[in-house]
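ok so i was messing around last nite and threw this chain in just to see what happens. nothing serious, just curious
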Amino acid sequence: MQYDIIIVGAGLGGLTAGAKLAKEGRKVLILEQHDRPGGCATTFKRKEFTMEVGLHEMDGLHPADPKTKIFTDLGIMEKVKFLELPEFYRFFNDRHDIVVPHDPKMAKEILLNSFPTEKDGIEKYFYSVLNARKVMKESKGQKDKSLGEFLDEIINDEDLKLVLLGNLGYFHDDPYTLSYYYYISAQGAYYNGRANFIQGGSQKLSNALMEIIEENGGTVKLNNIVTKVNYKDKIPSSVIYHDTKGKNESEFIDEAKEIIINSSLPKLATELLPDKFGKDLALQIKDNNIGASLLTVYYGFNKALKEIGNPNYSTFIYHDSVKSQKDILENNHSDFSTRSLTFVDYSHVDSDLAPKGKSVGAVCCVDYTEDWEELSKDEYKKKKAYVAETITSRCDRLIPGFRDAIDHVEVATSLTVKRYTLNPKGAVYGFAQNPNKPTEYLSSLPDNIHIASAWGKFGGGFSGAIISGYMTAFGIIRKG
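result:
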């Protein structure tokens, strides 16, 4: 069948691009290997609980936020309810327990109260994250640096650096290999406006985008995996795909003028493109590092956890062994008894993830597929049980009564992420956003292949994927 656009993958980037293009009257086909749309923006059911796969908080939705315009244009605001969060995050280690609000003025006051000798550094930090565009414009032509280098330049107190790096796992695993420019743009989006959780979980957003596509004549085929992009006269012209459930063993071929890739760039290079074209792309991306993955422990509680004394929505717990930002990367590779982690307690908002009187929570930490790949099935199962017990014990020490409130617990590792997203190494944010990350690969692709995902120019996270998808759609619309 002939389409205007075929989209490979129904993550947020592909869905956003598809929704915009379908609304503009384009004939759209989306092919997704999973049984639901969304990629990392999904949920799953366990007993009475809806488990949120990826969303802790989505930055923005203030008037100047690009997503506000995107969601208004697509009609998302009528389909999805966004819940404003009570604070940015709580940072906890053996030396400090600090709640950082989204309001930058209040945040500065709180940090100055704990670190009164670091006034200049705090001012410089917030100037950068609140004025990212201006800073980058004024620095045009200058080489990028790492976030770690920036913090070392402006701040002396290592604990203050750690507090500011509380949510580092939203972007990367090491401040010394994270782009300063990328960080201030992303972090500024949290401080420049409020942040939200999606009532009912991020699957509601993904489903709404799919509904918009279908309401406007587009087609979304779940449980269908693309195996090859065909070329005709050196131009991509069609895709080959098949049913992943085994209901139909036949291969299908559909044609399109434009092809949007919402899967990983390494997969595109090594599996989807014909030999020469794939090898050319592989050469273009060889200097790009693949980002880290995440491990999540999902909890269903028999009560609202805030009722037993957990005071905050999200808590970043840094182990005592992390004395400076130079310790962060090593800690991310440490045993789960010492690895820093994030706990999100969805009972602090009207999340609609659990029945009344019960709640859902999640613990998340940086993870790496190489720590799991060589394990046998039994070893893998035992290690997951160890992780669940170890992390539960740590949370119970922080929140007395945590263990007694548990009704369900399970662990998803970096291999779980890899299995459901097909991303190499289970990468959740695409390529690592290293300083001066090469981007030449984006201009090396044929004019009718487009990248709408965390692997594109805007990077990972919900916002990066959504903006990537929308801008990709605009680029195609401008072509006529």
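not much to say yet. The longest helix spans residues 377-398.
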